[in-house]
Structures are given as C-alpha cells and as structure tokens.
Amino acid sequence: MTILDFLRMVRANLKLLLIGLLVGALMGFGYSLLQPRVYASSSTGFVTVGEGSGINDVISGSVAAKEKATAYLSLIKSSAVADEIIAANPEINLTRGEIQESLTASVDSNSALISVSATASSPEAAQALANSSLEAVAKVVNDLEGSSSVRVIPLEDAALNPSPTSPNTPKLVLLGAGLGLALVLAAVMLRRTVDTKLRTRDDATKATDAGVLGILPVSDEISEESILYTNSDHISQEAIRQMRTNLRFVNVDNPPRSFIVTSAEPGEGKSTVSSSLARALADADQPTVIIDADLRRPTIAKKFKVDSKVGLTQVLAGQVELADAVQQFEDTQLFILPAGRIPPNPSELLGSDKMRQLIHELSQEFTVVIDVPPVLPVTDASLLSNSVDGVVLVGAVGKTRKENLAEAAKNLRAVNAKILGLVINRAPRTGLGNSYYGFAYSSNGAYTSYYGKDQQSKKGSKRSAKKAKSKA
Asked: Composition bias, kind Basic residues: at what positions (predicted)?
C-alpha cells in the first residue's frame, strides 16, 4: 500500500475513524469517572543530630545527619511510624497497611533534606499524613536509640491540594481516543486486506489486465428495473457519455461495430450497462441496435418497455423476418431486437452460423450491442465472443468477486476473445468509497457547477417538449 492509497483509505473512512476517536475518548472519560480519586501532598524538613547543631549544620547537613537521614529513610513505611501517625491523627480513619502504602520518602544526596509524599482519598487526609510523618519518624528513631538527639526541623509544611493526582482524566481521554482510532484503522486495513470484492479501479485492472472504459455511479436512472431518461441525474448521464467516448477510442482507426456486454456472475448490471450504452450511442446520431441474447433471463425488452413476444429466437429459427422483429425505440436511432420465446437450447442458437451471419449483416449498418449471459455460469458469452469485434466486461462494486472477474477474463481470452475494456458499475458517490475507490464522484455538484444548473434544466425542458411535440 502506497502513502496515497493510505490517505485515500483514511479519507474514505474518515467518518468511521472520527466515530472511533469519539467513542474511545468517551470510554476513557467514563473509565476515569469509575476510578477512585487520589489526592497527594508533600512536606519537607531537615534532619539534625545533637542538641548543638547550628544553622550552618542544618542547611549544609552534617555528616552524621546525612547518615542518619539515609539510614532511617526506610522507617517511613514501618509499622511503628504508621502507628504513631494513627495516634496523632485519629480522624484519618486509615489502617496501618493503608498508611504504609500511601507514604514515600527521599533524601537529598547533598544535605540532610528529607521529603515525604503522602496520598489519600481526600486532600485533608493527604495533608495530615505528610505533615505528621516526619515527626513520627523522629519519634520512632528517638525511641529506638533511647535519646532525643534526632530532630526534624520543618522547612515546608504540606499544602492542601484540592485537585486529584489520579485518575489523570486528560491522559485517559487521550489514551482512549488513540486506542479507538487505532482499532478502527486496524479494522479498516484488515477489511481491505481480506476483502475479496471489487472495490477499486486497481482491483478491476489487476484482475483482468484490461483498461476501464467507464464507471457508472449508483443512480435511480440506470437501475436494474428500468432505464429512465429524465436528464435530472447529470452525473450518471455524463458517466455514460464518457463510457461511449472511451469505447470509440479503443481503436481509433477501426472502432468496434459489434460487441457483447457480459459479466462474471449474474446480478452485476450487464443488462443495465448494455442498455445505457446503446441509448448513448443512439443519442449521438449513431444507428444502434441492441440484441437481447440472454435467452435464459431476458430483460432488455422490460427495460425499454417494448413487446418481447417476437424476437431473436424466431429470427434465428426462420419463423420471422428480421425487419418484423426489430422495434424502433421512440423517435431515436436506437433499435431493439428482443429475445423472443425462450428456447430449450440457447447455446446452440447463439453459436450457430445464422447468429454470426445476423451480427455481420447488422454491423454493416448499425453499431450492434449484444447483451449476453454471464461468463462463468454458461458458455454463451464465450461462444459469441468470436462473432463480434470485442467484449465489454462489467463488474459491480461490492458485489463482484475479484477472483471471479479474473476467471471470466481468463475464460474469454482462452477462446481468443478481445476484451475491449471494463465497466465498473454501481460506484458509490459519497461516504465509504468515493475518493478511496477512485471513482471521482465525491462532489455531486461538480457537474452542475461547471456547466450550470439552469443550462442543464433548460436542455432537459427542451428535450421533454420536443418529445411531447413528436408524440402529439
């Protein structure tokens, strides 16, 4: 994965990452609320030895005082010191073990300065523990040595600190946010690593070793049920026109006059693509005929809402003349040859000499678009691939498996079929996918902002008026 791929992935999953960040931060904050509050306070004093210690000895620390301070440092956590603290502060209400765990001490290496830190569940308790601990140590030492030569001269009394030292809420919130972000990012990367579906332009080209002719976004105008032409979805219409242009430039000197449109598996939108492409070619004043050669599950007649009783099967059987079976779509350059009656032997009909001759004759006058069954379930597409100038292979984002797409391309090349290119169908416009998948539909307003919304509306109105006038 390149840096650019990573940035695209982050951008495409930005909402999920932000949600993970927010949830992690909230969990960190919630965890901090469940933790007990701990308050801290510390006091400092000088340890002196003997009655005659002067101020200089106190500040610099005599050798004896330094040795005593270091030697008695471990007494801070002793039971005797804890008992003295309890006796001096009965209101603290702490056990001996709790006091021992809450105290820590250190000695300055250059003097007899000793510092004691205490923690407790309240600021007052922490202050009392820190202030009384040094006096308790001095008393225990004097009791042990049987004298009162050890003194503790206070330097800084413990202060009352109302802010708890634990839990560290900002730290826990940041830690939770980072953990939430990392988990979501790991899940996104794992999903991309193990994902077997077609997701990106690179997935399609690597699987088939062919170029991309076009990318059709998710649109109500080019759904599986029907092909609408309201011209309200400028993005989908422009994508179809771009697909038509790219098809023409596959071979500039000898553009394809006939081609089949197929997919690896059913339900990937091959009939939608063939219908949209045929209509786009006809809209460019190029005589076009679309043949429904999917004799197992014909859908072209339903999409264009024409009669499907008479069609290809009757023409190939010699029961009907071609001119009687072909239907013109409205007042356009598009002609439709429906599938007709579903035969018991579709493969034999499509692989027959009559089918090849029919395609050859039609391609002399028309651009022939043939909708055929998927490649992997049946052999119809492979049989017809040598009767046309090329194959347009369709894959659907989030549905087509990359291995199936690769296998379909392999099967077609095994029979010397020429793959003109790929059409990626149902590309997401927004949310998870658009920029990461490289489909360039991140801004739905890009088309109208360039050409002008009013201009497009006027064009749509003029076309609607023209159609209404012709029907009248």
From this structure: 459-472
R_g of the chain computed on alpha carbons: 42
Count of structural domains within the chain = 3
Provide DSSP, 256-312.
Answer: -SEEEEEESSTTSSHHHHHHHHHHHHHHTT--EEEEE--SSS--HHHHHT---SSSH
Tell me the per-residue pLDDT of 214-264, one tens digit each, with 9 for 90 and over: 998 887 766 655 565 556 667 888 888 999 999 988 888 888 999 999 999
Residue 95 belongs to domain spanning: 39-156
- Do 229 and 221 form a contact (C-beta atoms < 8 A)? yes
How far, in Å, CA of 67 to CA of 73, rounded? 10
351 in the same domain as 204: yes
Does the model's pTM come out above 0.85?
Answer: no
Q: Is residue 365 part of a domain?
A: yes
DSSP 8-state class, residue 91? G
* Chain centre to alpha carbon of residue 308: 43
Quote the CA–CA distance of 56 and 451 in Å, as a whole number.
89
- Same domain (yes/no): 44, 109: yes
Domain co-membership, 389 together with 357: yes
Q: How far is CA 228 from CA 190, 222, 462, in A?
A: 39, 7, 17
For residue 68, pLDDT over 90 is answered with: no
Q: What is the CATH number of the domain that holds 78?
A: 3.30.70.1130
